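Notebook, bench 3.
Goal today: get a predicted structure for Nucleoside triphosphate pyrophosphohydrolase from Tumebacillus avium so we can plan the truncation constructs. The sequence was checked against the plasmid map this morning, with no discrepancies at the termini. Length recorded as 491 residues. Pasting the sequence as submitted so the record is complete.
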Amino acid sequence: MKTMAKVTVVGLGPGAWSGLPLGTYTILEEQQRTGGAVYFRTERHPVVDDLRQKGIVFAALDHFYEQAENFTDVYQRITEHLLKEALEKSHIVYAVPGHPGVAETTVQNLRRQGKAAGVEVVIGPGHSFLDDLLVAVGVDPADGMLLLDGTSLLPRQLNPSLHTVIMQVYSQDVASDIKLTLMEQYSDEYEVTVVRAIGVPGEEKVVTVPLYELDRLDFIDHLTSLYVPKTEEEAVVNRQLWKFVEIIKALRDPDTGCPWDLKQTHQSLRKYLLEEAYEAADAIDQDDPYALADELGDVLLQIVLHAQIGAEEGTFDIYEVIRSVSDKMIRRHPHVFGGGMEADTAEAVVANWAEIKAQEKEEKGEVPQSILDDVPRSLPAVTAALKLQKKAAKVGFDWDDIHDVYSKVKEEINELQETTDKSDEFGDVLFAMINLARFLDLDPEEALAGTNRKFRDRFQYIEARLREQGKSPEDSTLEEMDRLWNEAKNR
């Protein structure tokens, strides 16, 4: 039976000679004595000069960092090189900074790819920088800790309620990227601790600075890591979705919750959901981004409150809500997420959306009895009328010419004048006017909202001008108000 080729991976410790594991030195020395090959991922490590002085000969792989555009490619090329060398030489030793099992992508690559390549990967001794760093900042990892890679840091990885150590802060450029990512969660003044060459006498630096100064430190290099302390500060924690979910859960606690919140059901909250949506729409109309942020928070409150009620009933929770809509967005955007469809225009996206939605309903066994079934009966009347007309128009039930629509509007107005059933005929007038808006490519809801804003602005002008005169609309004549109305129109 043929013996597999082998890579023995050892760690060089955090940097000081005193931190080099005895087992690592023994393996390196034995490999040297038997004429075996030794590779260092990098020679940029404080203990390397000590090993040279003791006669350890090795090949450094730093040149790979100059041959690729990103770290992922660098580490893959190093992995492929090591596997090739192991197959040719039967056994090699590969040394990495710190501990082989901590923050070493090449080691993880070797473990994943070694077996298929016919190479056994053995993990040897090491001493992680993490041990010394945690001692330096006074943190017990059992208190809850995140360990993240600074070269690929994502906002979704952060959790301010946990101590966070960010490794691989290789340069000021990397530190700048880290700073910007952290600022999505933490304030500019939030204090973080920068740790360089931990455990290396004469080179070690442990400096605490406000976050905004992180990338201004001139000593940042390949031996640098960052510690971000956990916090319960409201300004930080209250930005987290999980915290908001906890707040709503507390409001619904049967023993200590709020009596009003405890009383609510899906049905009782229905009107509030609609009201908050309309208030958010009003903030959009007012072009007020700060008001919009506030109103969207109120909409989110309704969503999370409904989700909490669902969780209590055992039907769904907030994570099911998020999963469902995430699945839907991916499924209905195949042109973005690789589903085989193309869509170069907004119109093509809408067409794809409708087709995929129809397929989904068919797969669920939902066979519509009418093309109008997709229009919810609870929609506001103007919006519902527009949607109903669009649905009917898609199958040819529509006017051919806009002049016919104008004629229909006039016809309905005449009928309104002549009938005693004013409510029914007035509805017909509105329906015809909405049809006209559709032909004019206008949104009737937006058009009417604009007129409402115009009326509000002009009438408030009348009130303001009357106040200047010590009067109010109640004790003014129609002629006075009409004159001021015309003033408002001509401003």
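Residues 458 and 486 are 9 Å apart (CA to CA). The chain has a mean pLDDT of 92.
Flagging this for group meeting.
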